[in-house]
From TrEMBL:
Residues 1-82 form the GST N-terminal domain. The keyword Transferase applies. Homodimer. It comes from the Eukaryota. GO terms for biological process: glutathione metabolic process. Residues 88-212 form the GST C-terminal domain. SUPFAM superfamilies: GST C-terminal domain-like, Thioredoxin-like. It holds the Pfam family GST_C_2. Keywords: Transferase. This is Glutathione S-transferase. GO terms for molecular function: glutathione transferase activity.
Amino acid sequence: MTIDLYYSPSGSSCRIVLLAAKSLDVELNLIPVDIMNPESFTPEFIKLNPQHCVPTLNDSGFVIWESKAIITYLQNQYGKNDDLYPKDPKKRATVDQRLFFDTDLYARFHEVYTPKTFAGSPLDPEALANANKALDFLDEFLVKSEYVAGDSLTLADLSLVVQISNLELLGHDMSPYKYINRWYAKVKAIAPGYKEANEDNLVYVKQLIGHFAQADE
Ligand SMILES: N[C@@H](CCC(=O)N[C@@H](CS)C(=O)NCC(=O)O)C(=O)O
């Protein structure tokens, strides 16, 4: 039985799935997709996901995309315990809320850095202030608890740590966020397979940024 993951290592949503799979001890058969080059998509991939986005998971014919839907599916289907995604409805709701929050944080920073990265546009101060508000909220969550959804590591930490690593790579000023910085160092140190699933793949984000920076010159 193989679980195929169509992915691009530069995509933060793909690295979230890689990182969660490590913690869940689920082996994925990785199928790279050159997302910047739709002509290269295989007919199999095109047929599998009408949205043609990655990450897309194919678990023996069950096909699902959207990183958060994928990681909660992997947990529900293959999790050996419920540590990362508690069964208690209230605790689980908090993890879900933080996962949705992560999607909001991603969208806000997308507004800030995508025009700069892909078109060399200057940073929009309004978009930047709006994005930094999400970091203020995250910092506030972490004043009250050691991890983003309580006192232990959950899927929400694995998702958010990937977004914060992207911001670090982009040189975003993280100095005002004392609690995020403390949590970030801890999650990087304890999340199983962090280096292989996320850190080592950041080189592809660097390459992508470099490629567009050159194209602008
Ligand atoms: N909300 C999605 C975002 C996925 C996403 O943005 N994927 C990018 C690559 S990292 C992509 O496939 N872009 C091409 C497209 O959406 O057509 C998730 O969390 O999985």
